[in-house]
Design brief:
Layout (H helix, E strand, L loop, with lengths): L12 H43 L4 E11 L4 E11 L10 E12 L3 H6 L3 E17 L12 H4 L2 E15 L7 E15 L1 H5 L7 E15 L2 E4 L2 E5 L4 E10 L12 E12 L3 H7 L1 E10 L2 E5 L8 H4 L6 E16 L7 E14 L14 E8 L2 E5 L4 E11 L4 E9 L5 H8 L5 E14 L1 H7 L1 E10 L2 E7 L22 E19 L6 E17 L11 E9 L3 E9 L8 E7 L2 E2 L4 H8 L1 E17 L3 E17 L1 E3 L2 E3 L2 H13 L14 E6 L6 H16 L4 H8 L35 H22 L6
Parallel strand pairs: 4-5, 12-14, 13-14, 21-23, 22-23
Antiparallel strand pairs: 1-2, 2-3, 3-4, 5-6, 6-7, 7-8, 7-9, 8-10, 9-10, 10-11, 11-12, 11-13, 14-15, 15-16, 15-17, 16-18, 17-18, 18-19, 19-20, 20-21, 20-22, 23-24, 24-25, 25-26, 26-27, 27-29, 28-29, 29-30, 30-33, 31-32
Protein name: AsmA-like C-terminal domain-containing protein
Keywords: Membrane, Transmembrane, Transmembrane helix
Length: 776
C-alpha cells in the first residue's frame, strides 16, 4: 500500500509550548485585570488614607466615600472626600482645617511616567463642590522640613477646574475670610521646578480664570466684602462689583486707628500683568477705572506712613498707565471741619507708587505724571461750627498748570453778639463770596514734593466780603493774624507772582456799644492787583517788596485809589500806603457815623483827599492833605429807639463846629496838612491800622490838635459783653452768662473835652431854670 507525499507533518514541540504559554499569559492577564477590578480600588483607597495619616504625623485623617479607577481610560474618580483634623493631634505643625469635596475626576494620567518617577502628564483634573474651612494656622514649624510638593511629585496638568468652591478662614462665628461660591480654572499647569521659575507663568499655569461670589475678609478691624470678583490672566482683566468696606462698631477696634467706610459699585482693571506681580512683586496695568467710589474716613490719631509703605505688603512697586475715577465722593469724619467733595471725575496719567516716586526729583503729583479732573460741590467748616464753607465746582489740569473754583462761599451761623460771647471779646464776623477763582501757572509738582505753593497768577472774580461786628465786649489783646508780617509764622512757602481782584465789594456793618442801630459802609467796584506775594526769602526783601494798587468807590460814590509797598519778611513790619479819594459829600459817611457814633454830617464837600502813610510794628506816621468846604456836624441823641436832636446835642454841635474848621484851605488861603502820629496797635489788623492813620491825619487837618486826633483814632478800652439774651443760640449745656455791669465808655481826649463841656452847659441851664425870672 502506497503512502501520499502531501500528508501533514506533526507540529514542533516549541510551537506547542508557545501556544500554551500565550494562553497561560492571557489567563493570568485576565485574572490580573479581574483582581485589579476587584481589589485595586479598595487597596488604593486604604493606601491614600494611610499615607495622609503618615504624612501629617497623625494630625489629619482622610475619609473617601467611594473610589473608582478606569485603567483603560487612565482615569480616577473619587466621591465624598473628607479631610478632618484629629481630635488630639500629636503635633501642631499644620493648619487646623476641614475639607469636604463632593467629587474629584482625573483623566489621562500617565501611568508609566508615574511608575518611573518622572513628570506625570495629566489631561484634566476637576474638583466639584469643594469647601475648605481653616480654623487656625500652624503654631510650630515642621520638625523635618520637606521639599516643596512640586519637587516631590512633578506634574503637567492640561486643565484644572474648581467648581462650586467655598470656604472660610478663622473662627466659625466670625471668620477672618469667607467665600460663598466660586469657579476657578487653569490651563497648562507645569507643576515643576521649571514651572515655578517661569516668569511667564502665574502660579505654575499658562493662564487662570476665576469668578468669586460674595468674598469676605477682615483687615484691621474692617470688614471687606464684594458681590463678585472676576479675573482672567489671558485677557489681563480684573473686575470687582459691589465692593464694600465697613469699619468696626463704635467702641471696637484699635483706639486711634483710621476708620474707613467705602463703597464702590464697580472697578475694572485692564492690561494687568499678574505674572509680573507674582515674580517681581510689581503691579503693572494699562488702566484702572473706579466707578462711583464713596469714601468716608476718620483720620488716625497719628499721621500714617506714606501710601507706598502701606501697600508694600502687596507689591514693591505699582505702575498704572491710566487711573480713572468716575463720580466719586470723599469725606472726612471725626473732625469739626468735616470736609467733603462730591461728584469727583478725575484721570491720572502714568501712575507710579513706590519710594522713589515720592522724591522731589520724580516731578510727580500724587504719584502721577499728570492729573485732570473736575468735581461737584465741596463743603467744609472753618472754626467749626461757626463758618460753613462751600465751593460749587473745581477744575484741575496739572499739565496745563491750571486750577479753577466757582462760587466760593463762607457763611456764618451766629450773629456778631453771639460770636463775642463765644469768644469772650470783640471779634469781626465775616461773610465771603467769590464767583470764581482761577490760578494760572500753578506748579503742582512743587506743591506735591515740597509743600511749596507757587502760582504765576491768581484771578478772583466778583469777590464779596461782609464784615459785621458788635462793639460790646472787651478787646482782644492778642496780636492780629491779618498783618503782612504774619506770613513769617507760616510753615509752607507761598509764592504768587500776581494776585488780581476784579469788581469786588467790601461791606462793613457794625453795632456800637451806645445804640442797637447798625451802621454800614461799603467799597464797591474794587479792582486790585498785588505783585510778588511770597514768603520765600530768595524772592522777598526790602529791595524786592510786595507791591500793589487798587481802585474802588467808597459807598459806590467816591472814587478811591491806593498804592501799597511792603516786605512780608521785614521783622519791623514796615509798610508804605499812599492814595487819594474824592470828590464826594461828607454825607456818604452818615450811614456809618450816625448809627454808631450819633454824628451826622449836615453839610460838607470833599474835593480831594491825598494820604501818605508809613506803618511799622510800633508807629503810624505820615500826612493827609484834605481839600474840603462847608463842613458842618450835628450831634444827635438816642431815645426810645429813635435818633433825635436834643438840647444838649445842639450845644455840643455848636461847640464842635467852632473847633472844627469848615474848609481847607482856610479862608485866608492857608492850607493845613494833617499829620499822622499815632501808635500802632498790634492787636488790630493792618486794615484797621490804615484806617486809624487816615482818620488821625484827617481829624488833625480839620483843626483838632494832633494829640487829640491821635487819641480819637485809637480804639476804646472796650465794654462788658452783651447779655446772653442777645445770643439765644448758645451751645447746649453751656450755662447762661450773667449780665455784666455796663463798663464806662472810653472816650478820646476830644470826646472827653466835648462831654465835659456839655455837662457844664447842662448844669448851667438847670440852675438858670430853677431861678426866678427876676434873679436871672
Amino acid at each position: 500500500m502506497n503512502t501520499s507525499p502531501t500528508s501533514a507533518r506533526p507540529p514542533h514541540r516549541w510551537a506547542i509550548w508557545l501556544r500554551r504559554g500565550l494562553a497561560a499569559l492571557g489567563v493570568l492577564l485576565v485574572l490580573a485585570i479581574v483582581a485589579a477590578c476587584l481589589f485595586l480600588d479598595p487597596w488604593l483607597r486604604r493606601t491614600l488614607e494611610k499615607q495622609v495619616a503618615e504624612k501629617t504625623h497623625g494630625q489629619y485623617q482622610l475619609g473617601i466615600g467611594s473610589l473608582r479607577t478606569e485603567l483603560w481610560a487612565r482615569a480616577l474618580h473619587l466621591r465624598r472626600v473628607a479631610l478632618r483634623p484629629t481630635a488630639r493631634p500629636l503635633a501642631d505643625t499644620l493648619p487646623r482645617a476641614t475639607l469636604y469635596l463632593g467629587r474629584l475626576d482625573v483623566h489621562g494620567v500617565g501611568i508609566l511616567a508615574l511608575l518611573r518617577g518622572r513628570t506625570v502628564p495629566v489631561d484634566s483634573l476637576t474638583l466639584d463642590s469643594l469647601r475648605l474651612d481653616v480654623a487656625a494656622l500652624a503654631r510650630r514649624p515642621a520638625p523635618h522640613p520637606t521639599p516643596p510638593l512640586y519637587e516631590q511629585q512633578p506634574l503637567r496638568l492640561g486643565y484644572l477646574a474648581l467648581r462650586h468652591i467655598s470656604g472660610s478662614f478663622g473662627h466659625t462665628s466670625k471668620p477672618t475670610g469667607q467665600l460663598a461660591d466660586g469657579l476657578v480654572s487653569a490651563h497648562d499647569i507645569l507643576f515643576t521646578s521649571a514651572g515655578a521659575a517661569d516668569t511667564q507663568r502665574l502660579a505654575f499655569a499658562a493662564s487662570w480664570q476665576a469668578q468669586l461670589r460674595q468674598p469676605l475678609g477682615r483687615v484691621g478691624g474692617h470688614t471687606v466684602t464684594a458681590g463678585l470678583a472676576s479675573f482672567s490672566s489671558a485677557r489681563q482683566q480684573l473686575g470687582v462689583d459691589s465692593l464694600r468696606i465697613v469699619p468696626p462698631a463704635p467702641g471696637r477696634g484699635t483706639p486711634g486707628a483710621v476708620r474707613v467706610f467705602f463703597t464702590m459699585p464697580r472697578v475694572r482693571v485692564a492690561g494687568l500683568r499678574a505674572a509680573t506681580w507674582q515674580h517681581q512683586h510689581r503691579l503693572r496695568a494699562d488702566s484702572a477705572r473706579l466707578s462711583e467710589p464713596r469714601l468716608t474716613f476718620r483720620p488716625p490719631a497719628q499721621a500714617p506712613p506714606p501710601l507706598w509703605k502701606l501697600l508694600q505688603p502687596l507689591f514693591r512697586r505699582a505702575d498704572v498707565q491710566q487711573l480713572t475715577v468716575e463720580n466719586g465722593y470723599l469725606a472726612m469724619a471725626g473732625v469739626g471741619e468735616a470736609p467733603a467733595v462730591r461728584h469727583v471725575f478725575s484721570t491720572a496719567r502714568r501712575l507710579r507708587i513706590d519710594s522713589l516716586s515720592e522724591q522731589p526729583t520724580s516731578r510727580r503729583v500724587l504719584y502721577a505724571l499728570g492729573w485732570t479732573g473736575h468735581t461737584g460741590r465741596l463743603t467744609g467748616t472753618f472754626l467749626a461750627p461757626l463758618y460753613p464753607a462751600s465751593i460749587e465746582h473745581a477744575f484741575l489740569d496739572t499739565d496745563a498748570q491750571t486750577l479753577r473754583f466757582t462760587t466760593l462761599a463762607v457763611r456764618p451761623t451766629i450773629r456778631p453778639a453771639q460770636l463775642n460771647l463765644r469768644k469772650g471779646y470783640q471779634t469781626t464776623q465775616l461773610t465771603i463770596r467769590m464767583d470764581e477763582v482761577r490760578a494760572q501757572g500753578f506748579d503742582f509738582k512743587q506743591l506735591s514734593a515740597n509743600s511749596y505753593l507757587r502760582v504765576a497768577r491768581v484771578i478772583i472774580e466778583n469777590p464779596y466780603l461782609l464784615a459785621r461786628s458788635d462793639g460790646r465786649g472787651p478787646l482782644n489783646r492778642s496780636p492780629s493774624y491779618l498783618t503782612p508780617d504774619a506770613v513769617l509764622r507760616l510753615r509752607a512757602h507761598i509764592d504768587v507772582r500776581q494776585l488780581d481782584l476784579r469788581n469786588g465789594t467790601i461791606m462793613a456793618r457794625s453795632r456800637s456799644e451806645r445804640t442797637p442801630l447798625v451802621g454800614s459802609f461799603s467799597i464797591n467796584r474794587l479792582n486790585a492787583s498785588l505783585y510778588n506775594v511770597t514768603n520765600d526769602p530768595s524772592r522777598m526783601s526790602l529791595a524786592q517788596p510786595l507791591t500793589g494798587s487798587a481802585t474802588g468807590y467808597l459807598q459806590n460814590t467816591c472814587r478811591a485809589e491806593v498804592h501799597l509797598t511792603t516786605s512780608l519778611l521785614d521783622p519791623r513790619g514796615r509798610q508804605h500806603l499812599r492814595g487819594s479819594f474824592g470828590p464826594a459829600p461828607f454825607s456818604i459817611l452818615n450811614p456809618v457815623m450816625t448809627p454808631t457814633r450819633l454824628i451826622h454830617f449836615k453839610s460838607g464837600q470833599a474835593q480831594r483827599v491825598d494820604f501818605d502813610e508809613y506803618i511799622d510794628r510800633q508807629h503810624i506816621s505820615g500826612t493827609v492833605r484834605a481839600h474840603y468846604t462847608g463842613l458842618k456836624l450835628n450831634f444827635l441823641g438816642y431815645k426810645e429807639g429813635e435818633m433825635t436832636k436834643t438840647f444838649f446835642g445842639r450845644i455840643k454841635s455848636g461847640l464842635v463846629n467852632v473847633v472844627v474848621r469848615d474848609q481847607n484851605p482856610r479862608p485866608g488861603g492857608r492850607f493845613v496838612v494833617g499829620e499822622i502820629d499815632t501808635p500802632r496797635e498790634l492787636e488790630f489788623s493792618t486794615f484797621t491800622a490804615w484806617r486809624q492813620g487816615l482818620l488821625a491825619g484827617f481829624v488833625h487837618s480839620m483843626g483838632v490838635p494832633k494829640k487829640m486826633a491821635s487819641g480819637y483814632s485809637q480804639a476804646s478800652a472796650g465794654t462788658a459783653l452783651p447779655a446772653p439774651t442777645d445770643a439765644p443760640s448758645r451751645r447746649v449745656g453751656t450755662p447762661p452768662t450773667a449780665p455784666a455791669a455796663p463798663a464806662p465808655q472810653a472816650r478820646s481826649k476830644v470826646g472827653r473835652w466835648l462831654h465835659g463841656t456839655a455837662r457844664r452847659v447842662k448844669r448851667l441851664a438847670k440852675r438858670l431854670k430853677n431861678k426866678a425870672p427876676g434873679q436871672r
